[in-house]
Amino acid sequence: MKKSTLEYLIRKPKKVSTNPPLIVLLHGYGSNEADLFSFAEELPDEFLIISPRAPLTLGYGSYAWYSINFNADGPNFSDIPEAKKSLSLIDNFLQEIIEEFGVDKKQIFLLGFSQGTILSTAYALNHPNKIQHVVALSGYVNEQLLVDSVANNSYENLDFFISHGTVDQVIPVEWARKTPAFLNAIGVKNIYQEYPVGHGVAPQNFFDLKKWLEERM
Length: 217
Description:
- The chain is of the alpha/beta class.
- It has a single domain (8-215), classed as Alpha/Beta hydrolase fold, catalytic domain (Rossmann fold), CATH 3.40.50.1820.
- The protein is built from five helices and nine strands.
- It has helices spanning 33-37, 80-101, 115-126, 173-185, 203-215; strands spanning 8-11, 22-26, 48-52, 56-59, 62-64, 108-113, 133-137, 159-165, 189-195.
- It starts with 7 loop residues before the first strand and ends with a helix.
- The mean pLDDT is 92.
């Protein structure tokens, strides 16, 4: 792990190249940088894989990108100012990684889970010129995090893999089902898959997202 805007874990490409493709893993609420990093050895060898730790400490080994009010619903559920601050941190962090490792700027992927998906989605829609691909696991689009110009942006180079558990007890699948329609309305390529699991990633889900990644290498 290295010190930067955010602390992170790294798996360098197994197939060395001058400008490697990058995949950044954004973990969920209450988790840490080691969680999604458990996927790293199974992802394509060409990738530089970076897994940052969220900035808010909830407890030992437990972190968050922003606070959640579990007793509220709708607009009061998420701490939007904190979430926007994390989006800014992610932006700075990405630029640091790109410069340090000479990343291929046309092959940048965000892979998020839950809260990490919400931020991955918002970041990509706010910065479609910086990101090409998003893997959105067990999350949804929070329109409060999107800039006013979203409807006017060009998304022809943006591509989403979206998945959700049909019995997700944390983020209802109904929230996720709105995502494809939202993305279709603004011209973002996407595929949406559901799996018979709760708030997690089923083996078939991982197989499908890995195949999706490989097809875009």
